[in-house]
Amino acid sequence: MADLEQARDWLTQAKSVAILTGAGISAESGVPTFRGAGGLWKDHKAEDLATPEAFARDPRLVWEWYNWRREIIAKAAPNPGHKALVQIEIRKPRFTLITQNVDGLHDMAGSGKILKLHGDIWRMHCLDCKANFPNRRVPLPKMPPHCACGGMARPGVVWFGEPLPEGMMKEAEHAASSAEVFLVVGTSAAVYPAASLVPYAKQAGAKVIEINTEPTSMSKVVDCVLQGPAGELLPKLL
Ligand code: BJW
Ligand code: ZN
To answer: Where in the sequence is the domain holding 123, given as residue range(s)?
Structure first.
């Protein structure tokens, strides 16, 4: 059986499905990925900007990066890949969408409950009063932005060295370990603990299907690799 038919067959049979997405699923919506071609912003790597240390050193620089990304994302729309995941969710009695993305395109596509492991670019967090609040202003009129209390705000996302939102990894692990099919879409699987969900699902007995334009460190771990753009391949799995 060809890989695509095999993957479609596993997915059709499964009652319990979990999906891990990364930046690649939004690439066809025009949102830049972190690694590989186009992954740099003004010569800075994500690893150099997405840290509490970078923010402490130069909050304006870090906010300029987020402002640039917010401007791109504000103009972006979900693509057929995001929409296909909504269709899978509708068809499955047990379904969990786990995303590393902060862009909100899964919400916009109509996905239900989403485990956002790395937070949300449309939220801010006050360093003083600790309020966590939505903010969709694009472009930001002043950087760094401030909270109503006067404190400096930071993006409501998870940076390197910071813990994931409380309890969320446990929920993601539960979904991965109880899934019959685990789909890994558009992630380099280079960032932990998100990447650990792939071997976790495999060890728990899931059929693991990877969709990516390039091979990744997980390609050898998974049961089936579908190489190509998520926006083209995901609709073919329905
Ligand atoms: C397509 C496509 C198309 C293109 N179709 N495909 C174990 C081992 C080693 C290190 C660690 C470890 N555990 C923890 C660490 C440290 C660290 C880490 O992982 N470091 C690595 C560099 C090794 N992890 C952490 O620090 C995490 N926190 C933590 O562990 O806390 C512990 C703790 C506990 C208690 C107290 C304190 C601490 C936090 C990680 C946070 C990551 N944050 C970021 C930024 C989020 C905010 C923002 O967006 O600005 O998350 S970094 C960035 O990478 C972002 C992404 O979500 C994440 C993953 O990237 P992703 O999605 O995979 O994108 P790319 O660009 O890498 O890949 C895109 C893929 O798409 C490619 O493969 C393309 O081929 C493909 N593609 N077009 C399909 N059309
Ligand atoms: Zn505040």
So the answer is: 32-75+119-157
